[in-house]
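Sharing in case it's useful to others searching the archive later.

Someone asked me privately for the predicted structure of DUF507 domain-containing protein, so I'm posting the question and my answer publicly. Question first, with the sequence:
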Amino acid sequence: MKLSEQRISHLAHLIADGLWKDDLVDYRDEARALQSVKEALTRVLSVDDQVDGLVREKLQRQKKIPGSREWQVLYDKYFAEEMAKRKW
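And my answer, the predicted structure tokens:
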């Protein structure tokens, strides 16, 4: 999933603010905390993109019709399997 820097920044602020408001964490350096959240989001989204590409290639090799019910069922199954391999 491709997100702009602005969207990632917005999500990072929401996450950091939520953690602080729920009293789950205290930040010594808020800027550093935000940067860490942004990096984590970017890594998660990168893995998601990689898995999506692998699954789409696999379905294309099987000559499944994109958008069909069978394609969607197999996509969900293969996506979950690939994510499990990566322990996500």
